Automatic annotation (TrEMBL):
The name this protein goes by in its record: Corticotropin-releasing factor-binding protein
Gene behind this protein: CRHBP
Annotated SUPFAM superfamilies: Spermadhesin, CUB domain
Source organism of this protein record: Erpetoichthys calabaricus
Recorded superkingdom: Eukaryota
Residues covered by the Corticotropin-releasing factor binding protein N-terminal domain: 53-177
Amino acid sequence: MSVAFRVHFYFFLICLSALRGESRYLEDNEISQDGIFSLLNSEIKRELSEDIIYRRPLRCIDMLTMEGQFTFTADHPQLHCAAFFIGEAQENIGIEYNSVNIDCSGGDFIKVFDGWILKGEKFPSSQDHPLPTYERYIDYCETGSIRRVIRSSQNVAMLFFRIHTPGNGFTITIKKIINPFPCNVISQTPEGSFTMVIPHQHRNCSFSIIYPVQIKIAELTLGHFNDLQVKKPRCGGAGDFVELLGGNGVDPSKMFPVADLCYSFSGPAEVKIGCDNTVVRMVSSGKFVNRVSFEYRLLDRRDLEKQKGNSVEDFCYSAE
Ligand SMILES: *[C@@H]1O[C@H](CO)[C@@H](O)[C@H](O)[C@H]1NC(C)=O
């Protein structure tokens, strides 16, 4: 595994934990403001809420987990910048330009990407995203979209930008938009639980955990269980199934299959995946209501040791 990639992931871990600390602080603040707010009329409320928006400068390489207003100002030509946004599983990201001062004809740009791109790999993969890849980029210089909110299709989005002239820059507002039916998700934490449901939709969903984890599948319901279909000899030929994937990049379509699950069951099934990225992916034909529930937790060093010699270990950690 490349050192650069590890550095990326450690950067994530550090940023995520630092920013999560900050966001807890902000939430506390908001709760204590609520009491005062209820005494005020709506006009004053509106003025005040403008004032308590979280604001901070945006860095050339940045990671944001919270709502607020973020301003980037180039202090020298900054040509390779990327800001990553992530929300909770049930939140999509809304991005709005407040002001933009860049030189599009001079080669500057700001592009929103619907998902994340890391080392040339996309999440969600093109097999899981509802839009073709070219529609997932929204270029400010082509659309000039001030005052229009750009919405992501899942809990992650990012911004690529390049600015040549010192002093130029832009301000954006990030908002979280509730998504009651999350499909593709990157987990913010190495520990949690999730239920993925695809009700009669022809689509694929991937839940990605960017840590080595142990996954416990509590329940899997694939519609054809109730139809008493004859068991197929193999998974995945046609029809609906869940696959567990492991790998060191973010694109699920480039990861290694660890297990295929194509029959409903209840009762825990546990798998340890010693990779930088673990994905639970559901492929759905649209004929059924499919559902999978799972829990996950970080693999500790002892677990990783024990994985030595096992094929999962081989494809993720032996390539150093
Ligand atoms: C879902 O993924 C499978 C491959 O795993 C692909 O053949 C299929 O076209 C995808 N379905 C959709 C709706 O994109």
